[in-house]
Amino acid sequence: MENFQVGYPVLEISDLENGEVQVSQGRFLSNGTEDASKPTWIVPIGVLNAGSSESYYELLDGTSGLLSGVNTNSSEWTKLNAYQSGIFRVKYSDSMASKLITAIGKSELGPEDRLSLLSDNFALARASRLSTAKALEVLKAFNQETEYTCILSICACLTELSRLFAQKTDSEEYRGFKRLAEQLLGPIGKAVGWDAKPGESHIQSLLRSQVIGSLIEFEHDETMTEAVARFKSFVSGEAELIPDLRLPCYFAAVEVLGKEGYDAVMKIYKESDLNEEMVRCMRALGAIPDVTVLEETLQWALAEVKAQDIFIVVNSVAKNRRGKDLAWEFLQKEWENLVERFGKGSHLNTRMMTSCTEFSSEEKAVSTCSFAFHLDGVILRFLSACFLNA
Q: Is 193 helix (H, G, I), strand (E, B) or coil?
């Protein structure tokens, strides 16, 4: 196959003085490095212009070329890789990106194209090929988003950003992040509400669970207060709590009520014979602010939780900014025990190792190196994410 290459390309768009658009290609690598072999692909580029529902294609057969049907002097937007029909990323020029951001805000783009713009911009920022500030400008345009798949991507981007502020929750930057999360998820949260509406679709139910869970994850006061109230009514027997909303309510109760909420969720865990309910409880127990209780929770997991579920508790503690270091220290201390129990290369050990990928400082990356070098290859690949995040 003459055009076969490992990986896939990123197309970089440049504006020329006469209004023409030049597109150049290179291999996209998520770690931001350049491929010295400089491979090229034959790339059919779907082009969608403002006011049109039909796309057309232009072919890039070489390192660079001109897009004949696109002119940046126009005030209208142009979306490349229309309907996400090709396997490549696009880095737009500033002028084209600005027009597309406006189009997102006006809902002039379909969900596939909105989703691809968000995905491409954050992937490029992650690979240091685009500033995070520019990726945030794209994200901010989604403040009226209602499509479930786009909301999922928004929440994933916000979760990724929140890791940067894990140890800086008293900073103005973190307060700004919380305002951004509220601007993006607040409107859709009010629209879906807490209670199902007659005849609503299953997607709407999934959307409600996702949005409420994310608002609680990002400490939205109004949502936290409502979640705790519903939790109290549930444990007292005054009202039912649908399964889709139990995890966010359990999480909020443990975080806000502290030991009272923790004990109530632990009681639910011990009295339940449904695995899905027990998993919800384990995922929520790590939200408690008390560091001493977090340490006890890790030891409880090792001693009493089913072997295949230990990673759920470890990851739950690691997602708590107060428990991130505790989980990593626990994993190092108990590593030999875990390897003996599960075996080398176990997917359970690998899943617990996710706790270290959320570190975002050079200091943490360096501190994990000495521990990582003696591990097997499967775990090393997971740890590499930690080094890249730093």
A: coil
Q: Smallest Cα–Cα separation from 214: which of 265, 257, 262, 156?
A: 156
Interacting residues of 303 by C-beta distance below 8 A, sequence separation 6+: none
- The contacts found for 278-282 with CB under 8 angstroms, 24 or more apart, are 278/309, 279/309, 279/312, 280/246, 280/247, 280/250, 281/250, 282/309, 282/312, 282/313, 282/316
- Output the average pLDDT for the chain: 89
What CA–CA distance (Å, rounded) separates 207 from 211?
Answer: 6
- Amino acid type, 364: K
Q: Is 7 left (phi over 0), alpha (psi -120 to 50) or beta?
A: left
The pLDDT of residue 1 is 41
Smallest CA-to-CA distance from 82 within 111, 60, 61, 106 is with 111
**Per-residue model confidence as pLDDT tens digits over 64-80:** 999 887 877 788 999 99
How far apart CA 263 and CA 231 sit, in angstroms, is 13
What is the per-residue pLDDT for 74? 82
Whole-angstrom distance, CA of residue 155 vs CA of residue 183:
12
Token pair 């009272």 in the structure block, residue: 260
3-state secondary structure of 352: helix
Q: Give the angle subtended at the CA of 351 by the CAs of 251 and 158, to the nearest 5°.
A: 50
